[in-house]
Amino acid sequence: MASLQIPFLSPLISWLYSIFFQKHLEICVLGLQSAGKTSLVNLLAIGQFSDEMVPTVGFNMRKVKSGNVAIKVWDIGGQPRFRSMWERYCRGVSAILFVVDSAIPLPYSEGAKTNQPTNPWLVATDELHSLMTRPQLAGIPLLVLATKNDVKGAVSAEEVIRVMRLETISNREVSCYSISSKRQVNIDVTLRWLCARSPSSAR
């Protein structure tokens, strides 16, 4: 006896699966101005890189789809006047991405220039550690992304871990990758890291 073929059944099941078993993730992307945050978010959202990005003023929200994971991305401005907003947008997210510009030379390990408060690495380190001490953000996974590794002399992930003292952040999971939005280096690794931290959500 020939089996009855229902051509629309498989697409229907796939659609129902995507509705009821899709994973949902909300992340916050932070970092100093001109670190490469918006270029990264734009690449994740539409798969395109642009050298000419307008700095984020305040915040932007984008949605990213990776497999069966839907990601809501908050891109928060990195100028000093917006940093007080960081904690508010990080509350309750699935992960925090902190972006640093690895093309900027590291501060000297010795000498007066080490302690210059305006050095981007020192400022970024202070801002990150201050944020990580907020009780409302305890336990939220942190991913530090060193962007622009396509630039000659870019700082490695190992150096970022050392300079930013990431090993001292002990109240959460902490990871660090060296990436390039322009060359799309380790963008897939970043997405896998994010997707692995998204809880299943039935909607």
TrEMBL record:
Pfam family, one: Arf
Keywords: GTP-binding, Hydrolase, Magnesium, Metal-binding, Nucleotide-binding
Superkingdom per UniProt: Eukaryota
UniProt keyword annotation of Transport present: no
UniProt key word Nucleotide-binding: yes
Gene3D superfamilies per record: P-loop containing nucleotide triphosphate hydrolases (3.40.50.300)
Example GO BP: protein transport
Listed PROSITE patterns: ARF
One GO CC term on file: lytic vacuole membrane
Chain residues that bind GTP: G31, L32, Q33, S34, A35, G36, K37, T38, G78
Binding site for Mg(2+): T38, T56
PANTHER family: ADP-RIBOSYLATION FACTOR-LIKE PROTEIN 8
NCBIfam families reported for this sequence: small_GTP
Family in the record: Belongs to the small GTPase superfamily. Arf family.
Protein name: P-loop containing nucleoside triphosphate hydrolase protein
Organism (species): Meira miltonrushii
Species lineage: Eukaryota, Fungi, Dikarya, Basidiomycota, Ustilaginomycotina
